[in-house]
User: What shape does this take?
Amino acid sequence: MLKFTLKRLASLVLVLIGVSFLVFMLLSLTPGDPVRMMLGESATPEAQEALRKEMGLDDPLLLQYGRYMKNIVVHQDLGTSYSTQRPVLDEIMNVFPNTVQLAVAAMVIAVILGIFLGIISAVKQNSLLDNIVMVLALIGTSAPIFWIGILMILLFSVQLGWLPPSGFGSFEQLIMPAVALGMQSTAVVARMTRSSMLEVIRQDFVKTARAKGQREIIVILKHVFRNALIPIITVVGLQFGTLLGGAMLTEVVFSIPGVGRLMIEAIKQRDFPIVQGSVLFVAACFSLVNLAVDLLYAVVDPKVSKE
Amino acid sequence: MEEKKSRSQLMTVLKTLSRNKMAIFGLIILLLLLIMGILADFIAPYDYAKQDLANAFQHPNAKHLFGTDEFGRDIFSRIIYGARTSLLVGFVSVGIAVVVGGALGAVAGYYGKRIDNFIMRLMDVLLAIPQTLLAIAIVAALGTGLTNLMIAVGISAVPTYARIVRASVLTIREEEYIEAAKASGTTNVRIIVRHILPNCIAPVIVQVTLGMAGAILTAAGMSFIGLGIQPPNAEWGNMLSTGRDYIRGYSYMTMFPGLAIVITVLSLNLLGDGLRDALDPKLRN
Amino acid sequence: MGEQNLLDIKNLSVEYKTEDGIVYAVNELNMEIGHKETLGFVGETGAGKTTTAMTIMGLLPTPPGKVTSGEILFDGRDMLKIGDKERRGILGEEISIIFQDPMTSLNPSMKVGDQIVEMIRLHKTISKKDAMEEADRLLEMVGIRRERANDYPHQFSGGMKQRVVIAIALACQPKLIIADEPTTALDVTIQAQVMNLIKGFKEKLGTSMILITHDLGIVAEICDKVAIMYAGQVVEYADVEGIYLNPCHPYTKGLFNSIPKLDTEEEWLEEIHGLPPEPTERIEGCSFSPRCPNCMKICKHKKPGITYIDDRHYVRCFLYENQEVKADE
Assistant: This one.
């Protein structure tokens, strides 16, 4: 188990190095001169030249990348924002907790509600309730987060005045964004739970459990659900990536200061260190979650843990 | 002989699909949207970009079925042209993803060893970045606009197809008829194109349908945050973005583009689910 | 039939609704099992044996399954009428089942010991520790080391898994065990071992058993009675001696003819021509008539009733009904 974890950690580091390289190269190829952006159009060519030299922008790309990586590893330094002149890491850490809070809240909703609806649907397969849940789930996977968000603002803020339309910090401010963001994942989790449950529910060992005289609800939870978990965990893990991406849109809809908004602003201002840092940071989080999911398999599936 | 067999398989698939009312419903809606997009010039009552400030912010009425926006542009016409944009983005970006991803997957699966390792590690790198974020990063580098948006969304979906095709190739590679083709001196490229790729078509078709739904959603999202297609071009995502600013009092501006996205994506999802059930009997419940 | 039977099935009919139409899985089935008796339940795949077993236990999935007539008296209680709670009290405690495929009949994510403990604790109020002790004892009884209680099913071979399944079935010393082709899925070399194990326990614990099988050899070895099933019906029912010495129904005769005999040299085994009817097809007249070498006119349009050869041997066939009529004259 420890060996497995270390191996996965090692490949995670490699992947992240790959991500950093990819993003660095991608953004370096972009037209546009950061120096001119930082100093403004009126700066003298000499001043521009001096700054360019100071930032090492004339060095070969690989050298620049090496310096970038060295700063990350040695100084935990992701560079400096062109527009605010503050360390990128500080800028990210400033808003990152908001994004995490949003994504986690949405995830909690998706997992609890999605699994609950999926189980009910599977147990009552082909019933009216099942059909309703599945139609809703289908619509849920098809509706864009930002539109759901806007509709919610329209109903709960503009019409009813129950919840604040924007901002972040209080519980009331978290409800709408979390629900809007979590809706799609709820639908995906519900659909996966249902199909996974249906696959298990027909197996012989479920009959064995019933033949023991076990109560149906225990049969469903202890025998069926437990064995249906692996595909559900996979889908939940993948949803985390979708949620991180979706959080960016949600942040825009509800004016939440998070990594997404930070990034989008940075892109518009061509503040590439921020963009680079944010992508790398989010990719790292996502990879860590995936690692956690892999470890969770081992807990759930005895076949994995014994190997 | 083999052709006959594959034709009868196709018939079974089509028969199963035609029995699935939801999938057929999705297909019909999709065809309607497609016709709407293609014939937009003839169907749309107004020019999608023509401003008419005297008639701005008109609620839906007989002259403007879905009302007008802040510049007096006819929303109904913009929705119709938006179908063209969204379907185009869907087709092209998924096309990019299928061609690039499929080629990478086929090469990785067919040649194996180092090439496989290199390509799949590269895919791992792309997969480590959430898809929307990857598309955003690519647009950040390339700049906004229709072409760049399609490239960005397309590239962000490449790993999905690479994985699907590679998995299929790995199972097919060992089949005897591939051995036979190799033994008779057929070139590798020819084997891949003639024998291997046709056999991965089922999972790819399903993924293409569902992937188009995803691509349209992502593209709309990108336009919504201002990194996709910019006004005055008609795109549902940027229409929503504008509508959001006028949500108090002019909620129709957000209703119609949102509904258009949901209907399009839903019909693709319905069709994709139906195709998956028809093509993969194991998954049928 | 003066003494009360342990299990008495009367006129049981079960059908399934499917997309292709209604499947008549069990049609007016009659049979009985006394205390400590073993009934061999013989027939081809799809004859309705497993459906009957699941119906007895009340585990028939409904829908698509549906019991359309009959009663199943177990120890005087009609299993079709009792409530869910009462039935759960009977399942495991008084009736238990051994499924065909041990590879799939154990929960893959639960230690085998816990699966036995679950059964014990459902029906006995004892502490978890005592139940685990009891589970270890049961495992040893079926020939598995007690330490292995902490292992998961995938760590056992097929034969070993079936032993675990047997241990679960025996845990509460039920009055009736239904063994649904318990050795079919096992290697030939293991089959005899497992069969002997089952036979041994049955004798030791005095349990009644329904043994579902295709194998007439096994039936001869351990059964007291035999029910021959064809297309959802028991076409012949008798003591083992009755069946082997005096097989009456043409289908039963066909079954015996298709077994290789050691004492005569035959070039070919005789087969029963044709195939069993499609499950959705409802045959007018006797369901065996299309394949029957002795088919008569009446067989084509009338269903044969039950004819008693003697008081422990009945057959559903017009060949014998006519004889009876003649005897009456």
